[in-house]
């Protein structure tokens, strides 16, 4: 038998890319590839890239530069660029880095096996189509090997919102939802392989409207159907737009037993002027009312958000409005970014905030968010939570898992295995994780 070929995939950006990388590795498995953890012994290197901020794209070019020596030493080595930089920059990548053999966009990676074969014959191959066919229908069914207790499952891709700063509607295209039956099949397969928690993914996941047996299903409908999958214990979803937070989804947070009390609901900014210029299509007040309704449905809900500081024309007063909104919400976790100019998006044309001002605002914003995050984490001490254990910790006898609210929790006890879901009392709160005792 011939030696398996080795595939090194490096994933940048969001969880959807993590999911896509898994599916790409599975697709190339049919070509005899097995994954390796190092680029040094790889026969193929694939960078699954992110274009959301300028730095994310620049990192890809510097990483490619690092492979020059490898390619020179091993001319058969194939180098591919996938994901959103591939989609956005296409041929430009091959011009800037002629050693790249193939470029594949996020909607056409089911064609990777053919592309790999062509690259093997010395061709340069590029495919950044938005094909009519659904890539998931063309990918081989997922392998049956056992896997960890927590998995991602992409249910929706693309976005029709066109926030003025964001490249997603251009790189990932229009909103498309996968059929409900396919998602349920994939979820059952994952559960059969040991998965107990599924995070449903989509760039705008709560806009999900996939075909069901009796017309289009909402995300809430899909979550309720997943709630009936035996062996699946936890359901999460990310990432959502406030305007697609429908009544049935809010109700699911009150009533659906397996839906976890954690919600990532980005608002980006707290000033109505900036929200309008961002084309977010809601006000700060509307967002706060929505949070109230969600907390009425699920009082212990932990909220997470995304924030952009230094959006064009953001003044200190606008920024203060963002801080006030954060004070009003009390986030359990959050991601915050300096605005990054993306060519082709409307905000790139407007008056930019100086870099040092952005730095200063980001620091102040992150200080507030860290304080909130820490306070909510400390408030867990003394409480009982469910913990889904994932892996051994660094200390002897220790296991690490995730709480219902997504905190990392360490427990030292005998007889816990990855995949166990146990009740735990939280006894201590450290900088990045909680310590618990089994109940
Ligand atoms: N600059 C900075 N942050 C951005 N995001 C999206 N586009 C930009 C940009 N041009 C952030 C938003 C989004 C998250 C995924 O990335 O906060 O919610
Ligand atoms: Fe980008 Fe999210 Fe806005 Fe869509 S809703 S354009 S993905 S920030």
Automatic annotation (TrEMBL):
Q: Where in the cell is it found?
A: Cytoplasm
Which part of the chain is the Radical SAM core domain?
145-378
Give the co-factor note. Answer: Binds 2 [4Fe-4S] clusters. One cluster is coordinated with 3 cysteines and an exchangeable S-adenosyl-L-methionine.
- GO MF assignments: tRNA-2-methylthio-N(6)-dimethylallyladenosine(37) synthase activity
Keywords assigned = 4Fe-4S, Cytoplasm, Iron, Iron-sulfur, Metal-binding, S-adenosyl-L-methionine, Transferase, tRNA processing
Quote the Pfam families the UniProt record gives.
Answer: Radical_SAM, TRAM, UPF0004
Q: Which residues bind [4Fe-4S] cluster 2?
A: 159, 163, 166
What broad class of enzyme is this?
Answer: transferase
Task: List the SUPFAM superfamilies.
Answer: Radical SAM enzymes
Q: Which residues form the TRAM domain?
A: 378-439
Q: What is its EC number?
A: 2.8.4.3
Q: Does the keyword Plastid apply?
A: no
Gene3D superfamilies for the chain: Methylthiotransferase, N-terminal domain, tm_1862 like domain
Cofactor names from the entry are: [4Fe-4S] cluster
| Known role | Catalyzes the methylthiolation of N6-(dimethylallyl)adenosine (i(6)A), leading to the formation of 2-methylthio-N6-(dimethylallyl)adenosine (ms(2)i(6)A) at position 37 in tRNAs that read codons beginning with uridine.
Describe, as the record does, how this protein assembles with itself and its partners: Monomer.
Tell me the protein family, please. Answer: Belongs to the methylthiotransferase family. MiaB subfamily.
- Protein name listed in UniProt: tRNA-2-methylthio-N(6)-dimethylallyladenosine synthase
Its source organism is: Mesobacterium hydrothermale
What gene is behind this protein?
miaB
């Amino acid at each position: 038998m011939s030696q398996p070929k080795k595939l090194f995939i490096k994933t940048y950006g969001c969880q959807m890319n993590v999911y896509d990388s898994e599916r790409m590795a599975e697709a190339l498995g049919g070509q005899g590839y097995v994954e390796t953890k190092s680029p040094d012994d790889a026969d193929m290197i694939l960078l699954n890239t992110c274009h959301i901020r300028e730095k994310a794209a620049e990192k890809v070019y510097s990483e490619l530069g690092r492979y020059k020596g490898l390619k020179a030493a091993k001319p058969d080595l194939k180098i591919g660029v996938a994901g959103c930089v591939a989609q956005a920059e296409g041929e430009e990548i091959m011009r800037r880095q002629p050693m790249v053999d193939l470029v594949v966009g996020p909607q056409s990676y089911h064609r990777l096996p053919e592309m790999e074969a062509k690259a093997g014959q010395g061709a340069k191959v590029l495919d950044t189509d938005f094909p009519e066919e659904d890539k998931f229908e063309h990918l081989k069914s997922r392998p049956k090997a056992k896997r960890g207790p927590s998995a991602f499952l992409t249910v929706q891709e693309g976005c029709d919102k066109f926030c003025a700063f964001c490249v997603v509607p251009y790189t990932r295209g229009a909103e498309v939802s996968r059929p409900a039956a396919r998602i349920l099949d994939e979820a059952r397969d994952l559960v059969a392989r040991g998965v107990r928690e599924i995070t449903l993914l989509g760039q705008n996941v709560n806009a999900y409207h996939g075909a069901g047996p009796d017309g289009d299903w909402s995300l809430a409908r899909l979550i309720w159907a997943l709630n009936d999958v035996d062996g699946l214990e936890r359901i999460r979803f990310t990432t959502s737009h406030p305007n697609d937070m429908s009544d049935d989804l809010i109700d699911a947070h009150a009533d659906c037993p397996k839906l976890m009390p954690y919600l990532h609901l980005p608002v980006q900014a707290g000033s109505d002027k900036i929200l309008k210029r961002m084309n977010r299509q809601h006000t700060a007040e509307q967002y706060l009312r929505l949070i109230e309704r969600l907390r009425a449905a699920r009082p212990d809900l932990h909220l997470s958000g995304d924030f952009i500081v230094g959006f064009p024309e953001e003044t200190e007063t606008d920024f203060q409005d963002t801080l006030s909104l954060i004070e009003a919400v009390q986030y359990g976790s959050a991601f915050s970014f300096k605005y990054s100019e993306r060519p082709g998006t409307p905000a790139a044309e407007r008056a930019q905030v100086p870099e040092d001002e952005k730095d200063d605002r980001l620091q102040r914003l992150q200080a507030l968010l860290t304080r909130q995050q820490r306070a909510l984490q400390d408030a867990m001490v003394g409480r009982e939570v469910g913990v889904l254990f994932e892996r051994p910790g660094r200390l002897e006898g220790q296991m690490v898992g995730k709480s219902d609210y997504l905190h990392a929790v360490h427990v030292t006890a005998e007889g816990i295995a990855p995949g166990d879901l146990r009740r735990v009392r939280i006894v201590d709160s450290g900088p990045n994780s909680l310590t618990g005792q089994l109940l």
